[in-house]
Structure formats: C-alpha cells, structure tokens
Amino acid sequence: MVRAQEMSLELDPANTKIEFTVGATLHTVRGSFALNSGTIHFNPSTGAASGLVVADMTSGESGNTGRDHKMHKEVLESQRFPEATFTPTRFSGTLPAQGDCVIHIEGVLSLHGSGHPLALDVPLQVAGNTLTAHTHIVIPYIEWGLKNPSTFILHVSPQVDVNITAGGRLTP
Q: For residue 78, what are the contacts with CB-CB under 8 A and spacing of at least 6?
C-alpha cells in the first residue's frame, strides 16, 4: 500500500546516532553528537515538507578531552551555537507500508549561524509505522565559515563526513 496522505515522522533521540569522521595527519578522528529532537511533516502527493530536526552541538565528543575542548571552543563555538538544525522543504519518493525504499529530501542545514541548502537521498526501512533511515552528509565546514583547526604540524581535512542512522514513528 502506498501512503499518499500527509504524514509525520517523529524521530526518537534514543534510537538515533549522529557519527562524524574527519581526517587528520596520521589519524582519523571519530566522534558523535546527540539528537535533541526531530519532526518531519511531508505530503507524498504534493512533495511539500516541513518540520525541524535539531542536533545538540554541545554534546559532540571524540574521545579526547583536549581535542573536544578545542572543537567546542574554537571550531564549533558550541556555547554560542548550541544547535545545528535541518528544516525540510521538499520530499519525493514512494513510502511503502512495509519494506525498503529511497526517498529524496531537500531542505536547509543551519550550522554555526548560517543556513546551507542540502539535498539527500535517504534509504529507509519501513515496518508498519516504524521507520529507520540511513544517510551520509559531507560538510565542507571551513568553506561554510567554521575555523580551520589545522596547525603547522597537524593538518585536518576541510570537510567532515557525517553518518546518521535515525529511528522514528510515522503517523498520518
């Protein structure tokens, strides 16, 4: 059965992982952020989408206290910009009542006080009113105005890879 009416997806922070990877001289930094909340409204018939997904930038951690302190204070300025948000604007794809699919969602990712257009193809698994989504985002954070943490000796990649696995509930 194809869902044609307006739907809402309520993301579950406890079942959502936001993991990042950034290359640096001689090693790769891995870490995570927590999801505060997320609600996406979409109408498969019209392609309209709205809502808000909020990531807690103050929760970022990479397993190294000194590096995390520098990330929060100098790069993310997480005390000043405690959240990153995604505001969906367009949706396309067919959402089955059961099974796998790929949807396309467009919107604006706001990070460090600036909005950036973002288009994602998102593989989903649907089981009744439960949904699991997986997506990958490449964020050119230096190009987007965040500070380059590289030093004379340590070179850090100008982009960060973000992998998101999100679980939630669909409601009509």
A: 57, 58, 60, 72
